[in-house]
Structure to design on (213 residues):
């Protein structure tokens, strides 16, 4: 009986998260209320509050379903025990892009993050969550590139901080553009070539070299 109750609670939670994806996608984050989500999920507001503290908590949980596997890949690339950081980074990027194409949850949540969020308050907890995620990704990328540099895969004079910002901005921009115009380029073939070109530029571009203090 306890297991059935737990399973039902988990099913309700997943149904609420699925409904949140649909409503946030269709109405935008700022225009969505918990009543909207409850109606779409076929549950009461009380059921939502049983699982989530507030709208921001619901939003964060919705994002985590997508971001958890992405975070695992990012953290694995940044791990100092990795023997081929650039190779793993390339493979992980390919896996993430394949998930964006094949997994409708990935695609829908990323569309919400890039195109359905309006931040009306600088203290909005949803905005803070977004900042924390951005900083985590950028710091992990910087650690991965530093590890690649230590392995001799990147030149010693490369400005790792600037290179990590360049990679992060390029990757986010590529995903953002593809979500808006998926017919414009191939996220797998073209995306891989674009990221390979970025790594090539890290090896050769004078603009990405360390500057004298």
């Amino acid at each position: 009986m306890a297991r059935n109750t737990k399973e039902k609670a988990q099913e309700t939670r997943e149904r609420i998260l699925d409904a949140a994806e649909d409503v946030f996608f269709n109405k935008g984050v700022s225009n969505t209320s918990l009543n909207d989500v409850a109606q779409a999920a076929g549950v009461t507001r009380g059921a939502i509050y049983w699982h989530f503290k507030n709208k921001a908590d619901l939003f964060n949980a919705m994002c985590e379903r997508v971001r958890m596997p992405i975070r695992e890949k990012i953290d694995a690339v940044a791990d100092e025990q990795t023997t081929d950081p650039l190779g793993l980074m390339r493979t992980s990027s390919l896996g993430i892009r394949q998930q964006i194409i094949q997994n409708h949850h990935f695609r829908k949540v990323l569309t919400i993050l890039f195109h359905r969020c309006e931040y009306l308050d600088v203290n909005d907890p949803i905005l803070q969550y977004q900042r924390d995620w951005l900083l985590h990704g950028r710091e992990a990328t910087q650690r991965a590139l530093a590890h690649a540099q230590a392995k001799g895969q990147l030149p010693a004079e490369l400005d790792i901080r600037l290179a990590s910002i360049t990679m992060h901005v390029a990757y986010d921009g590529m995903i953002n553009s593809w979500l808006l115009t998926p017919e414009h380029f191939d996220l797998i073939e073209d995306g891989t070539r674009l990221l390979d070109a970025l790594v090539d530029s890290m090896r050769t571009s004078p603009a990405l070299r360390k500057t004298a203090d």
Q: What stands out?
A: The mean pLDDT is 91. The chain has two domains: 1-52, 55-208.
